[in-house]
Amino acid sequence: MTATGAVAGLGLAVGCWLIVAWVSARRPSLDDRLAPYLRAPLPARSAPVPRTPFGTLERLLAPVMSDAVRVVERFGSPRADVAARLARSGRGQSVEQYRAEQVVAAAVGTGAALAAVMTLAASRGVGPVTGGLLVAVGALTGLVLRDVALTRQARRRGERILLELPTLAELLALAVTAGEGPSGAVERVTAVGNGELADELRRVVADTRAGAPLVVALERMADRVGVAALSRFTEALTIAVERGTPLADVLRSQAADVRESSRRELMELGGRKEVAMMVPVVFLILPVTVVFAVFPSLSALRLDL
């Protein structure tokens, strides 16, 4: 009971300290108070449209969420790295939206850790220092897991694009052989193709229709996706367009190179899995086999004795 009271008192003290820190941090400075008298007033803006069904709760929690997002921005992954991973994952989110998801994940981790601490305190007893460390670990775990999930999404999307690349390269080669130009071939392939790479090529078509050259749009796609094979493909395609090299031959050779690279990666993965499959054989099946082979002999020796 003493441990439960200590943990509850610690939670109350931390909550009061956070409220005081938040109020003091949001206190307007002298510059903020003098700014309306030193510049022209800004035009009135309409109230923001709520993004959730709980509009009032959203408006109440918006200042707290903005402060939490700034804290995560300061101590989390670099902004450029997060923006690159969001682009590779194809989520279409901004960095601020992702930071808000990280804050929600940290809050969920904190709540789960706090529930675990209360349960342990009621059953076995947990010290306040241990309880505070567990809550901090829960919040940090929520942040890290959300970051790991984003990295995994970006990697899986890159793998899907790598699998789709040879097929779309051959479709482009067929379109070019039929008489289409580079831009027309890309538009024709995007009209019939599906998948992650087809979506990226649709963005290339949108960029070219907006006035960007095809070479620049392809380079933007390679930088946005971040797959090495796609970067080599776009580089070869760019060189072929600039130098007038037969484009169909270049596309076919690039598709063959990607398939060969995928085959090598599968062979390497199979070799690693083969080594991993030896672990249960050596540590589980082999000992059981030895026991079955030796046990009858031991039983016979005992009967003879």
UniProtKB/TrEMBL annotation:
It holds the Pfam family T2SSF. Residues 169-294 form the Type II secretion system protein GspF domain. It comes from the Bacteria. The keyword Transmembrane applies. It is a multi-pass membrane protein. The chain crosses the membrane at residues 6-25, 103-123, 129-150, 275-295. Keywords: Cell membrane, Membrane, Transmembrane, Transmembrane helix. Its main location: membrane. It is found in: Cell membrane. This is Type II secretion system F family protein.
